[in-house]
Specification:
The protein is mainly β. The chain contains no helices and four strands. The protein has a four-stranded antiparallel sheet with strand order 1-2-3-4, with no helix packed on it. The model has no long low-confidence stretch (mean pLDDT 92).
Length: 75
Amino acid sequence: SGEVIDTEAKGDLTLRGLTKPVELDVQAQVKGSTVQVVGTITIEFDEWGIPDPSFSGAKVESRGVLEFSLVFSRA
C-alpha cells in the first residue's frame, strides 16, 4: 500500500472509430481501498486518421500526448 509500481499495460485503444493494440508504461499505486493508475501515450495523428489540427497562423506538431488517470475501487 502506498508504493508506486511502474509497469506496462497492453490493450486496445479506439480513437475516431479506429481501434489498434497499444502498449504503454503506467504507474499504479494503492491508496486505501482504491488503486490509481496514471500514464501517457504518444499519438501520431496520421496513424490514427486524425486531421492536421494546424490552422492559419498556428502550426501544430504531427503528434500529441494522451494522458490519463484512472481510479479503481471496490463497490
